Amino acid sequence: MIATAPFAKRLLQWYGDHGRKDLPWQGTQNPYKIWVSEIMLQQTQVATVSPYYERFILAFPDVRDLAAAPVDDVLHLWTGLGYYARGRNLHAAAKLIVNEHQGQYPATLEGWCALPGVGRSTAGAILAIAHGQRQPILDGNVKRVLARYFAIDGWPGDKAVESRLWQHAETLTPHLRVQDYTQAIMDLGAMVCRRRQPLCNRCPQRLHCAALLGDSVHAYPSPKPHKKRPIRSVAMLLLFDSKQQVLLARRPPSGLWGGLWSLPECDLGEDIDHWCQSRLGLKVEVNPPWPSFRHSFSHFHLDVTPIPTHVKNANAVMEKHETVWYNVKRPDRRGLPAPVKRILEQLRTTP
Ligand code: SF4
């Protein structure tokens, strides 16, 4: 039998005393639940994910329920969690599992990685936790721990740096207790080796950590090379009919907010009258804009200016697959981008 290396031994001991053991997705080896949690945890913290995860599992208790659900129901439950491609991919992958794999989950790294939205680290985590397979993981938390522990220079998003980190992750992963180890290394990154203010004095690796020994913890991991985020501006049109319902249009399935229901958008400075007439066939009376607000994405800032208008010929828009008159006082189930949700919420709470 291969002995467990000291790094893993120390980590497992720490996990026994301090690790998180009551997260909603723990205590199960059900691949579906572990998969859903791992997808939600990509780019999102545990505290944010927990209520979303619980609502999601209640609505779709297994992969067949998810595969059978309309994508709108899935995106509705994803509203506010961000990175909506994750929800769409989860839904598409559930359909593949049910329709093409007879409801059977993949048993290999390659099999999981072939599903939409599943990368190597997510696949490794599912196989390690659900099946006890010895698979390394390398999510954002683990990258930070290893970059510091080995004092690895360079931004972890860089391919060469990432490949070095994978090699270390592979070597450190033990042959025994791989489920606990996988949870433990994620916990260490989230609870102790935190991005800001790491708690090195509570870390089981402190006597061996190269960054701490070199008094350079804050130098690792190297930050992403700085690139200023551009600012885009957009007008979001609140088109009201005579019943104070608002026109929503479904966005194309891929791209920003793909498949979500949004307010019609045009450039700021556009002649709104003319735009509505030519694009939507609507005659409108334009009211003063609401104050602008900023919504930030990882790659750009979006400055949104809501512009209310009253539609004089609402019948000209037939409700069809891509548009709907939405009653903010009686909202139905559909996925909404966060800024649209914010505007509709403001509308709902305005007397
Ligand atoms: S000693 Fe500090 S920097 Fe090193 S792994 Fe532990 S928490 Fe991270």
Task: Spell out the blueprint of helices and strands.
Layout: H1 6-18, H2 31-41, H3 46-59, H4 63-68, H5 71-78, H6 85-100, H7 109-113, H8 120-131, H9 140-149, H10 159-172, H11 178-192, H12 210-213, E1 231-240, E2 246-250, E3 261-262, E4 265-266, H13 272-280, E5 284-286, E6 293-296, E7 301-311, E8 323-326, H14 338-349
Parallel strand pairs: 1-7
Antiparallel strand pairs: 1-4, 2-3, 2-8, 5-7, 6-7
The chain binds iron/sulfur cluster (SF4).
How many DSSP H or I helices?
Answer: 14
In CATH terms, what is the architecture of the largest domain?
Answer: Orthogonal Bundle
Instruction: Specify the CATH class of the largest domain.
Output: Mainly Alpha
Distance between the termini: 70 Å
pLDDT averaged residue by residue: 93
Structural class: alpha+beta
Low-confidence segments: none
Rounded Rg: 24 Å
Largest sheet: 5 strands, mixed
Counted up, domains total: 2
Instruction: State the total count of DSSP E strands.
Output: 8
- Provide the β-strand percentage band: 5-15%
